[in-house]
Amino acid sequence: MKAEEFSKRSRRAMSWFIAFLFVTVFIPRLIFLFQKPKDIEFSRTEKTQIQTATIGFKKARKQKTFRKSSKKAKRFTRPERRFDPNNYAPSDWMKLGLSQKQADVIIRFGKGGFYSHEDLRKVFVISDELFELIKDSISYPERKISLTEPVEKSRTYENSTLIDLNTANEEDLTSIRGIGPFFAKQILKRREQLGGYHDKKQLLEVWKFDQEKLDQIEKYIEIKSSGLKQIQLNQVELEQLKQHPYIDWNLANSILKMRNQRGGKFQSIEEIRESKLMTPEIFQKLKPYLSL
């Protein structure tokens, strides 16, 4: 009998306990769930502060996104004002987005002066993208008659044999109608930089040498490829490779990294075309100077 009374008393206590939990725990939650939220009232000052903070946050996020996208898309920078390329220092060219090596190439090309877009376009490190960006900001000086290139006298002599550009000396070159001491020196200087000529059109890379001048002397010159100085891709080091006029530091570094990835040896010259920095134009100009 006592066990039965205890059992009834236990069940009753348990029922009261469950009812207590329901009232104290679940009912308030149900009320909160179905209760319509009250609008929070802010003062005018608080509203102004919230609006200001929201606008500032959106503006900061927009600027951050813009900077990221601009950093990816923008490679070159437009000049802040009109400029004379003859007065630009390497640091000025680097501000436009060129590397130190590329800026140095422009300075070397510019020793004879820039007087037109045609002159500037002869500098191979100035890409179409950069030229389009800066061409309207360039101011060229007037071209002056060079005292180093004497006016041609009534020279009647014409060469009976063709002059090989890869073996000619200054005297040989000045014997050609239309070539004086100035151009002779410039042609020899460019030949030394390149390691020899493989195409007559490379004379257009010579300072102040234009298509009219090439047409004038073309019938007097020839090129023998045997005179080219070869770059051995499987042995050349970075410092030597980057010295070639058609190769800057970045491209030289890319080529040597590719060589290391292939176990330190290229199987074919064509493999260097896989470099993202190697354009078809550069490869065609550079190929005659390459060997394994």
Order of helices and strands: HHHHHHEHHHEEHHHE
Which CATH C-level class of the domain at 163-226 is it?
Mainly Alpha
The CATH fourth-level homologous superfamily of the domain at 163-226: AF1531-like domain
Gyration radius from CA atoms, angstroms: 38 Å
**What is the CATH third-level topology name of the domain at 163-226?**
DNA polymerase, domain 1
> What order do the strands of the largest sheet run in, or round the barrel if closed?
1-2
Structural class: mainly alpha
Q: Roughly what percent helix?
A: 40-55%
Quote the distance from N terminus to C terminus.
109 Å
| Low-pLDDT residue intervals, each spanning 5 or more residues | 69-73, 146-159
Please state the average pLDDT score.
77
Biggest beta sheet summary: 2 strands, parallel
Number of helical segments?
A: 12
The CATH architecture of the domain at 163-226 can be given as Orthogonal Bundle
Explained architecture:
There is one protein chain. The chain has twelve helices and four strands; from the N terminus they run ααααααβαααββαααβ. The chain has 292 residues and is an all-alpha fold. Among the domains are: 85-137, no CATH class; 163-226, DNA polymerase, domain 1 (Orthogonal Bundle); 231-291, Orthogonal Bundle (DNA polymerase, domain 1), CATH 1.10.150. The longest helix is centred in the first third of the chain and has 33 residues, at 2-34. The model is unreliable at 69-73 and 146-159 (pLDDT under 50).
